[in-house]
Amino acid sequence: MNRAAIILAGGISKRFGFDKGLVQLAGKPLILHVIERVQDAVDEIIVCVRSESQLASYMQALPNKFRVKVITDLKDLPSCPLAGAITGFVSASSEYTAMLPCDTPFISGKVIDLLFNIAVNVNAVIPRWPNDYIEPLQAVYRTRAALEASKKAIERGEKRMRSMISLLKSVRYISTIAIREIDPKMLTFFNINTPLDLRRAEAIIKRAEGQKHAATPFK
User: Fold this and answer.
1) Helix/strand/coil (H, E, C) string of 86-99?
2) How far apart (Å, rounded) are the C-alpha atoms in residues 101 and 112?
3) Rounded CA separation 209/149 (Å)
4) How large is the average pLDDT for residues 13-17?
5) Residue 24: which H helix or E strand, with range?
6) Contact present, 149 and 162 (Cβ < 8 Å)
7) CATH superfamily of 3-215
8) Partners of residue 147 on adjacent β-strands
9) Are 101 and 116 contacting, i.e. CB atoms less than 8 angstroms apart?
10) Per-residue pLDDT tens for 16-33?
11) Per the confidence metrics, is the pTM higher than 0.85?
């Protein structure tokens, strides 16, 4: 497939007081939910963290059965999502790369697969809402082109993913209306920002498990 996934996990959540990606949801860390949901859509998974202490924590949290590369952000880069993006792009060997957050436990592998499928011959495929808000951290990029654009943005003192995107030529936007056909409840974009979000995610999982058990006939 020649596809990679970069999961950004370098930030410390002020609301949780520690790495958001390691917050427990249904008995496992958030980042593991993301990995399990996208692993079949990619050839390699790269988790980018900010520090050596985070590196150790994530290495310990991820089971050996997952072939995941955990790396620290390159030195001399500012602390921002773009630093993690550059680190991941440098490490990725695939032509196309999905850039993902670590806090979206219901991310849709089918949506990510769709983004990869329509990324041929363009430098990025990015979901866009009807109000023109875009989802740069649930998008697919041509690895080398995005790396060069990211470096240029940092050189200009710009730290946002949107700054990198503005420097890319040939960007394709996909309406979230089309994505809703695959994910009717749009849970792929549901991210955990607060303890309340975490409780909502737990409720969603319990509800799904209850429906699954209800649909299983008695033996």
Assistant:
1) HHHHHHCCCCEEEE
2) 13
3) 43
4) 65
5) strand 24-25
6) no
7) Spore Coat Polysaccharide Biosynthesis Protein SpsA; Chain A (3.90.550.10)
8) none
9) no
10) 667 889 999 999 999 999
11) yes
Provide φ and ψ at 215, rounded to 5°.
-85, -10
> How far, in Å, CA of 129 to CA of 133, rounded?
5
CB 35 within 8 A of CB 45: yes
CB atoms within 10 A of CB 32: 22
Tell me how far CA of residue 142 lies from CA of 38, 102, 176, in angstroms. Answer: 18, 21, 21
Is the Cβ–Cβ distance between 37 and 66 less than 8 Å? no
Q: Say if residue 213's pLDDT is above 70.
A: no
Tell whether the model's pLDDT for residue 218 goes beyond 50: no
Beta strand spans in 64-198 (E): 68-72, 96-101, 124-128, 139-142, 171-175
Q: In sequence order, what are the beta bridge partners of 154?
A: none
Say how far apart CA 37 and CA 3 lie, in whole Å: 15
Can you tell me whether residue 78 is helix, strand or coil?
A: coil
Question: pLDDT tier at 211 (50, 70, 90 boundaries)?
Answer: confident
pLDDT mean over 105-115: 97
Cα separation, 3 vs 113, in Å, equals 10
